[in-house]
Write a structure and sequence with these properties.
Radius of gyration: 42 Å
Number of strands: 0
Mean pLDDT: 76
Number of helices: 7
Structural class: mainly alpha
Largest sheet: none
Helix content: 55-70%
Shape: rod-shaped
Order of helices and strands: HHHHHHH
Distance between the termini: 85 Å
Length: 148
């Protein structure tokens, strides 16, 4: 059944017919359903006759029929959009934090520069000693290695 092609009164009548059908399948009397739904027995009679029903009465009747969970599917896509919005809002935007640059005293900067120069001189000494001992570094292609 397509509610989109029905008038409001037809939709109300169909919902009321379904409520009555469900009550009868569960083996409940109108009075028992009225007690469960916490409404008067006359209200259940009016609903089953297809008269207008308030939203709070409908919720009570669905609760009495143990069918309240079926409301979950109503406007479900709206619920998903709201849920996704909450998730996306929970993730804070990335904030870029820059470290403060601390100005070093000239003596400390000079000591660090001397350390760097010492490490460079060690590398230079190694290179010079390697060159003087005729150490040759070469890379042979794999094809030439197999021929040897």
């Amino acid at each position: 059944m397509r509610f989109s092609t029905m008038s409001d009164s037809e939709i109300i009548s169909e919902l009321c017919r379904r409520i009555k059908e469900t009550r009868m399948q569960l083996g409940l009397s109108q009075i028992e359903l009225a007690e469960r739904a916490q409404v008067g027995a006359a209200t259940i009679k009016r609903v089953e006759l297809g008269e207008s029903v308030t939203l709070s009465t409908l919720i009570g009747i669905l609760r009495g029929l143990d069918r309240l969970h079926q409301l979950e599917s109503i406007l479900y896509d709206s619920h998903i959009r709201a849920f996704n919005a909450q998730i996306n809002a929970a993730v804070p935007a990335r904030i870029r934090i820059r470290k403060k640059q601390v100005h070093q005293p000239k003596e400390k900067y000079a000591a660090e520069a001397a350390q760097k120069d010492a490490s460079h001189s060690t590398i230079n000494e190694w290179y010079t000693s390697s060159a003087s001992h005729s150490v040759v570094w070469s890379h042979q292609a794999q094809d030439t290695e197999k021929k040897s």
